[in-house]
Amino acid sequence: MSSLQLRPAMLTIVAIAIGVLIVLIETVLQDGSNGNLLLVLAFWSALIQGPVAVVAAAEISLGKWIKPMKKELLTFYPLILFIAILFIFLYFKIDIYKWTEIDHQWLSKNFFILRNSILLLLSFILAHFYVRASLKGKSERGTLAVLFILSFVLTQSLVAYDWIMSLDYPWISTMFGPIFFLESFYAGLAISAIIAAFKLLKNNSEDIRKVMRDSALFMFGIALAWAGLFYGQYLVIWYGNIPWETNYFSVRMSHSPFREMMYLVIFILFIFPFIGLVSRKSKFSRVWVLIVSFSILGGLLIERLFYILPVIPLNGLWLVIEFILMTVLMIIFYRSRKEILKYSE
Amino acid sequence: MKPKEMKELEYNQSLERDILDALRNPRPIFWLAVLVCAGFFAIGMATWVYQMLKGMGVAGINNPVGWGVYITDFVFWVGIAHSGTLISAVLFLFRAKFRNVFNRSAEAMTVFAVMTAGLYPLIHLGRSWLFYWLFPYPNQRQLWVNFQSPLVWDVFAVSTYFTISAIFWYVGMVPDLAIVRRYASGIRKRIYSILSLGWTGSLRQWKHYSRLYMFLAAFATPLVISVHSVVSWDFAMSIVPGWHTTIFAPYFVAGAIFSGTAMVLTLVIPMMKIFRLEKYITVDHFDKIAKVLLFTSVIVTYSYIVEFALAFYGGHKFEEAHFLYRAIGDYRYLYWMMLFCNSLLPLTLFIRKLRRNILYLFILSLFVNVGMWLERFVIIVSSLAKDFDPYNWGVYVPKWPEVAITLGSFGMFFMFFLLFTKALPVLAITEIKEEAAE
């Protein structure tokens, strides 16, 4: 694994190579229109921004629990730029959105790509300054953390409203944004717990054990909050019983495999972590926390599939390859964290 | 005794003395304040009786605006009520030590606010004496409440909430009541002895107490969130433009914490000055609670933006027309005032100096209280005044009985709070001692 530690220049080349590969898969190697790139962007943007947001939120609330894991989680921030650049290539897949056929001031091809890319870029810049200030312990780190969190909330809200919800235009749900940024935060905590659990293999330090425990504790809390938001959204739509609104869920709940996916998502993102992490002992169990954390990440992927799949098809084989590429990229970034953070400082 | 222990003992003794001083010898100004509040309360009650005698026609509510100031007041007070326990319980779970100086007032505020809120469904009923019809009880007429109605959910939610928040408040106070008992004499000693439940402060008692308190905090937090979500669903479950939106539950919960935090500041700042508690409630504490106020303001603003933007994004004509009506229609001044108080003004709290300026925080808290009342008014009234059918449009203006009853409810709330400051310890003595020791 030590061979995966790369210097910034080499890291940039690897990131570009992986980016080019994904773009090639999306534009040349695949036939027809599908939602692979959208799924890659929606899922990995949550996993990349989430860990940085967790650290920033802890910084704002003067939470000391994250300190032993701070550098590990901040190391993913350059990938926000990767997502921003990759997003531009969604332009070539824009026909997956039905709204491209209508005249809409907000939903127009160029504006759609422009606003989201700029926002992601802004989020990257803010993350960069925040990481630098945080690592050096500068006094302005609190302000920068707030600014990054704002950009994070805005970005993930647009992921929800713009990228995903607009697939079903004109269906709307105001709850989509909060659900998505909460999920990204959930992913950040799961990654924090996973890293802590793996670190405990090498170094059985009490501080790391506490990070794992606290991450698990927060995951338990967020499982409840997620269930509240998901249920709150569903209940209002079900009770209102307006045909154009209920159709969104009736399509997804009446047909296999979407119906099963929905139950699976509820189980993985709420019931399993809620029951699994309720006891004090379970939060200290390395294997158990790993199982719950990986299942949460899996649940988030299934949830995005649940939103996207009924509208546009996906190419399974290429999707797996793209996910492997993104996983490798994240692992390489994690392994090269010393170089990245030295460079950032 | 070591010098550190000596210092701790001195601090603890002075803390007990200062808190107990607050319980003794009310000054004439205190009684004057109680009298003014009781006067408002009496006016409110008298107006309610007048309304019952004359009928609901004396109030401004009519078709199409059947929910006016009374429901606005209900949601406002329920919001204040929900935030008290939420501030106290959530901050406890997050191990935020600054809560120790605010939790007692916040929890007291909760209990009095929920009592005030509870009056409004009765006032709004018209025939208030039939309130028990809201409860499912066996009766000869075979009437049964409509469990599908969010209003019935409200009855259960709010009454459950009142029970839990009162228990949470009381349990948190038991060790402090034992301290008061130690210094009291005569009938007061007897009352505090009963209230302190034989507390001796033994290790065993503390062990059980800590567990119970943690359990109550963990139980109260999701309960409050769910209860206030139910309040939001009173509106969101309908299909009225401006009400039927999925974000209402978290939006209302954030709004409740926001308004409650402002009310805590409104109550605690004068209390601190009057009882000279500056030694315990420091500028640092205010700095931190101001951050909570700012944070919740940002969430509320986010919700304003989302519901406004998505109304236009979705292209649904009724939603578009409704949000345009809010901004430029009959209630536009109230709408812009609401935005000024809830979204714009709290942004000043990004400036550290202002977060640490007590007078500024007090003034800001008053603005936020006004803004949050207006928010509820704008949501409720503007949606009903102009919904789907142009034939059914109309403008609602509150009449004097509604104003008098509203003032009466403020009188009742502040009167109870004033009496609380003279009857029970206003700060969590044991928790502040613990914080100081750490």
Describe the structure.
- The complex is a heterodimer of chains A (345) and B (438).
- Chain A has 345 residues and is mostly helical.
- Chain A has one domain.
- Chain A has helices at residues 8-29, 36-60, 70-74, 79-88, 109-136, 141-164, 176-202, 206-240, 243-254, 258-276, 280-284, 286-308, 316-335, 337-344.
- In chain A, helix 8 packs across helix 10 (258-276) and helix 9 (243-254) packs across helix 10 (258-276).
- The longest helix of chain A is centred in the middle third of the chain and has 35 residues, at 206-240.
- Chain B has helices spanning 3-23, 28-54, 69-93, 103-125, 150-183, 186-195, 203-236, 248-274, 283-313, 317-328, 332-344, 352-355, 358-385, 400-423, 429-437.
- Chain B has one domain (3-437): Formate dehydrogenase/DMSO reductase fold (Up-down Bundle).
- Classes of the chains: A mainly alpha (345), B mainly alpha (438).
Question: What's the quick description here?
Answer:
Helices cover 76% and strands 0% of the residues of chain A.
Feature tags:
heterodimer, A: 345 residues, mainly alpha, 14 helices, B: 438 residues, Formate dehydrogenase/DMSO reductase fold, 15 helices, 0% strand, globular
- Helices and strands of chain A, in N-to-C order? HHHHHHHHHHHHHH
Count of individual helical segments of chain B: 15
As residue ranges, the low-confidence spans of chain B are none
Report the principal-axis shape of chain B: globular
- Rg for CA atoms of chain A: 20 Å
Strand content of chain A: under 5%
Number of β-strand runs of chain A = 0
What is the CA–CA distance across the termini of chain B? 18 Å
